[in-house]
Amino acid sequence: MTKPPIYILAIESSCDDTAAAVLENNKVLSNIVARQSIHEEYGGVVPELASRAHQQNIVPVIDVALKKANIDKSQLSGIAFTQGPGLMGSLLVGSSFAKSMALALNIPLVAVHHMHAHVLAHFIEEEGFDKPEFPFLAMTISGGHTQIIKVKSFFDMEVIGETTDDAVGEAFDKSAKILGLPYPGGPLIDKFAAEGNPKAFQFTKPKVDGLNFSFSGLKTQILYFIQKNVAQNPNFIQENKNDICASIQYTIIQILMDKLKLAVAETGINQIAIGGGVSANSGIRATLKEGEQKYGWKTFIPKFEYTTDNAAMIGIVGYHKYLENQFEDASVVSKARIEF
């Protein structure tokens, strides 16, 4: 006798995207994201504006997710939500709605760690995308995080390397800001880099022990480089934009790859899975794929829509936690910072 399907409604509201998804077991039926354009004029996310926008977006986003999945709320088995890390005001909107809806429907509530979700997004059932086998190494790269994680099982993960200061996504965005590019600038650096020479300008890679990262020094180096050259030639950025972007991107990718090679050497694990918003970067994806040929790695890159913040990745963690009866009651609290 076949088991009835498990339907999970997932809610993600850790930063400035309001997202909802419905999963049938490990398959995504809908994955809806409402993006907030209001932050562009400020050059970064404004927490108070983000939480207000979440309040406006959350009901219509969940309504669309249920309708697109062709699922009535009465069919839901459980509700998963992002507990943290993230902006507290944003997290509270998602958690409050999830608690209220779970209570009203009398179904289980599942709290999800945002970074666990980026790792386990690889286990969403998606045609043409393989799943890594345990143990594997996960590199999570986003606007707020840069980590190398040893993943032994769905819920046994160990951070073996992380940034000591800024995240890689911030390095991309701040570099773009120095160049006068609009927010978010990371995708624009990727776009211009495709037309440039990555060896045109040399930037020094930071020396950090072990598997940890540092990007603050690189940002400062880029700032001084631009200031010096613009002082000599006011049109320097415009005349060399593609080459500057390509050189910045190349340096950041080499920093990531050096640590990844070291992690493989130290752990003996050659399955590499990447996640987080910066994993959408085409240069990083291409370099990782080249690593399969160069170093004999097996590389796993999730479907593009599961790399940036989304609710489907919250849902896959919710599904596996549901199978293990890892539920919460209404006393569960959102946390801006939360242990991995």
From TrEMBL:
This is tRNA N6-adenosine threonylcarbamoyltransferase. SUPFAM superfamilies: Actin-like ATPase domain. Binds 1 Fe(2+) ion per subunit. It is an enzyme of class 2 (transferase). Gene3D superfamilies: 3.30.420.40. InterPro entries: ATPase_NBD, Gcp-like_dom, KAE1/TsaD, Peptidase_M22_CS, TsaD. It catalyses: L-threonylcarbamoyladenylate + adenosine(37) in tRNA = N(6)-L-threonylcarbamoyladenosine(37) in tRNA + AMP + H(+). Substrate binds at residues 140-144, 173, 186, 190, 281. The keyword Oxidoreductase does not apply. It comes from the Bacteria. Required for the formation of a threonylcarbamoyl group on adenosine at position 37 (t(6)A37) in tRNAs that read codons beginning with adenine. Is involved in the transfer of the threonylcarbamoyl moiety of threonylcarbamoyl-AMP (TC-AMP) to the N6 group of A37, together with TsaE and TsaB. TsaD likely plays a direct catalytic role in this reaction. The lineage of its organism: Bacteria, Pseudomonadati, Bacteroidota, Flavobacteriia, Flavobacteriales. One of its GO terms (molecular function) is hydrolase activity. One of its GO terms (cellular component) is cytoplasm. Fe cation binds at residues 114, 118, 309. It comes from Flavobacterium limnosediminis JC2902. Keywords: Acyltransferase, Cytoplasm, Hydrolase, Iron, Metal-binding, Transferase, tRNA processing. One of its GO terms (biological process) is tRNA threonylcarbamoyladenosine modification.
